[in-house]
Amino acid sequence: MYDFGGFPEPFLKRKKRFLVKWSHLRTQQLFQEDIRSIAHIQEIAQMEVLAEIISSQIGQLLNRSSLSKKVKVTLPTISRWIHTLEKFYYCFTIQPWFKNVSRSLIKEPKIYLWDWSYIYDPGMRFENFVASHLMKSVHLWSDMGFGRFRLYFLRNKDKKEVDFLVTREDKPWFLVETKNSNNRALSKSLNYFYNEIQAHFGFQVSKSEDYENISSFKKEGIWIVSSKTFLSQLA
Fold first, then answer.
1. Is the pLDDT of residue 16 over 70?
2. For 56-95, where are the alpha helices, taking DSSP H only?
């Protein structure tokens, strides 16, 4: 799944050439047919430039002013186009959590793609991969009536940041910091925010760790866990 994105056709085929062809056709249909005809947007070439820029800024704060200058359209147009891309399941945004966070930065959201196969940077792709699974999970848990779940990120003025926070009933439940490398040193920001917001769990999710047949949610605390172990226990 990691190599072939989150859509069924390339995942089932598991062939690189099919993925390249399928991604090209999906992009063409999305912009040239669906968005042009349904959303009535005519500046398709500029919107495609916006989408390409977004795919290179995964996990970063969404700076609409900077995007406006790069794409050469107005700020309201950038906001409208991003909203359109979200409605057509090209991307999604995650808002910052600021309750009970000292010196928090209440700024723009972070942006991710639903299809992480478009992302070439290894660190960005892995972060996006985890973000997609977390977003899918909070939607499913909420829809099934298990409670009200939401996905956020944490960042403060001291440049401390944790990739994700899942809340349950508007209270911190668990934190997630992604690590694409083999470094097993615990994130200082994860430890800091875990204690500050009093979350139940703090997970440093590593792509390089091996799968373990254990429950990630068995005992509260901060844990280094493999992505295969952790994600297998979500929705």
1. yes
2. 64-71, 75-87
CB 49 within 8 A of CB 71: yes
Other residues' Cβ atoms within 10 Å of the Cβ of residue 80: 14
Number of continuous H segments (helices) and E segments (strands) in the chain: 9, 7
Host H or E run for residue 13: helix 8-13
Say if residues 58 and 128 touch (Cβ distance below 8 Å).
yes
Find which of 9-18, 98-107, 128-137 is predicted with most confidence, using mean pLDDT: 128-137
User: pLDDT per residue over 145-187, tens digit each?
Assistant: 999 999 999 998 888 999 999 999 999 999 999 999 877 789 9
Question: In 168-197, which positions are buried (b, 16+ CB within 10 angstroms) versus exposed (e)?
Answer: beeebbbbbbbbbeeeeeebebbbbbbeeb
> In Å, how far are 13, 50, 130, 148 from 20, measured between CA atoms?
12, 20, 22, 38
pLDDT digits (tens, 9 = 90+) for 76-98: 999 999 999 999 999 999 999 98
Give the CA diameter of the chain.
Answer: 53
Q: What are phi and psi of 104, to 5 degrees?
A: -75, 155
Whether the pLDDT of residue 38 is over 90: the answer is: no
Tokens (6 digits) for 91: 């991307």
Residue 217 neighbours by CB distance under 10 Å: 14
Angle made by CA atoms 70, 156, 182, in degrees to the nearest 5: 85
Buried b (16+ CB within 10 A) or exposed e, 104-113: ebeeeebbbb
pLDDT of residue 105: 67
